C-alpha cells in the first residue's frame, strides 16, 4: 500500500478522499490556493502546501506546482478527485515521469476517452451502440449537409467537451449555422479546441450511467446503473440508484456493454460509461466515458456497500479486486441532491458570502458530503456545489420521504442554496412517479412560465379595468371643470392641472 498520498483537489471531494486514506492508514498531503488556506481539507490533511492564488489556472490546474509539492512531501501517489486535473492525460503522465502513482486510469485511456469522436470510434469497434453522428473533422458546410441526412432535431457537441460546454440542441435547419458558430466559440474557450460534431437528438431520453471498476490483473466488474436525468443546462442536479426505468436483464446487458467499452481502451481503476436511454423502445446509446471518480458515486456506494474510493486506492496500488461480478447485488434505493450556492428563486444566480449558521441533517440512511463549516467563505472562484446530501431507503418511496426529511433539517445560513429547489422536486408528481427524462426541468420551467403568463393576463385585465375607471373619473372631473369655466376660467385651469398632476 502507499506510504503517503497527495490529494490534488479541494472542497468536499478532497475531504472524501482524505477520509478514505485515513481509514486505510495512509498519511495525506493537501494542496490549497490562497483563498482556501482555512478550508476543511487543509485542516484534515497531515500536511498542507499552498500552490498559488485563487484562480484555479494559477493553483489547482498547475501540474508543475503539484508535482513539486509531491516530490517535496515525499508522496508515492496522487488522487485527483474529480474536475480540475482528474481527466488530464498530461497530469497522469507527469505523475508517472516523477515516479508517482496516479490513482486513476492510464494516460492513454484518458486521452482516447477524452476525445469524444475518438471514443465513439473506439467503442463502436467493440459493439457498443452509438447515437447516429458525424465523422470527425468536418467543416461547417459539411456538418450542415450531414445534419440534413439524419434529420432534425440534432445536438452539436464539442469533441473535447464535458460539463455541457460547447453543446447546443438545434431544432430547425435555419438555426444550425449560428449554433455551430456559438458552439465552436464556447468549445475553443473552454477546451482550447473548437472541433465539434453532430449527433441525432433523441427526445425524451433518460441519462443512465454504469459504474465500472477494473484492476490491473484483467478483472472488470460493473456496479449497476445510476439515473442522472434531472439536469439543468446539461449539469446533473439529482441522481439515484438504481433507475426506475431499468429492469434486471437490461441492467446486466448495459453492464456488459460498459465493460466492453472499458476493455476497448485497456481501462484500469474506477470509471463511468454514460448512455442515453430511450424508454419507448428500451434502446440505449453510448454517450461518453468519464475516466475518473464521479460526483454521484455515493449513491452506488449506498446500494452496493462498496467504498469506491478505497477500491480506487487499492487498485492503483496493484492489488487484485476483492469483488467478482456475482458479488454485486444492489440493495435498496439511494438518492443524491447536489447542494449549490445558488439562488433558485433568481434563476440560480451564484451566491457568495460567509456561512453564518450550519445544521446538517443526520439520522438513519442520511449521508452528507461537505466541506462547509460555520465561518467558511464561499467565493466565485470555484464550482458552486458546496455539499451533497445522499439518502438510502429500502424502497424508492422511503428514500424520497427520507430526502424530504433531510432537506427540511438542512440549515445553511449566510448564503442562498438550492435546497428549496430540491424540496420542490421531491414533491413533484412526475419525479415521484419516476416518469421524468432529461427534458424534465425544461418542462417544469415552461409550465411555471405558462402559469405565470396566465397570472399576468389576470393582472393585465384588472389593470385595464382600473385604467378605464380612472380615465372615466378624470373625464368627469374635466367635464365638471369645463362647466365651471363658464363661471371662472382661472378655477377651470387650476382643476385641469390638478387632475393631470395626479396622473
Strand-helix topology:
Blueprint: E1 5-7, H1 11-23, E2 28-32, H2 40-44, E3 47-50, H3 63-73, E4 77-79, H4 89-97, E5 101-102, H5 107-114, H6 116-124, H7 140-150, E6 154-158, E7 168-170, H8 176-191, E8 196-200, E9 206-214, E10 220-232, E11 235-241, H9 248-263, E12 269-278, E13 283-290, H10 297-304, H11 308-316, E14 333-340, E15 342-343, E16 349-350, E17 353-354, E18 357-359, E19 366-370, E20 377-378, E21 385-393, H12 396-409, E22 411-413, H13 419-426, H14 429-433, H15 440-485, H16 489-502
Parallel strand pairs: 1-2, 1-4, 2-3, 4-5
Antiparallel strand pairs: 6-7, 6-8, 9-10, 9-12, 10-11, 11-14, 12-13, 14-21, 15-16, 17-20, 18-22, 19-21
Helix pairs in contact: 4-5, 12-13, 15-16
Gross CATH architecture of the largest domain: 2-Layer Sandwich
Distance between the termini: 81 Å
**Helix proportion range:** 40-55%
Q: Assign an overall shape.
A: globular
Give the CATH superfamily of the largest domain: ATP-grasp fold, B domain
Strand content: 15-25%
Major beta sheet, specifics? Answer: 8 strands, antiparallel
Keywords:
Dna Ligase, domain 1; 503 residues; single chain; 16 helices; D-amino Acid Aminotransferase, Chain A, domain 1; Rossmann fold; globular; alpha+beta; 40% helix
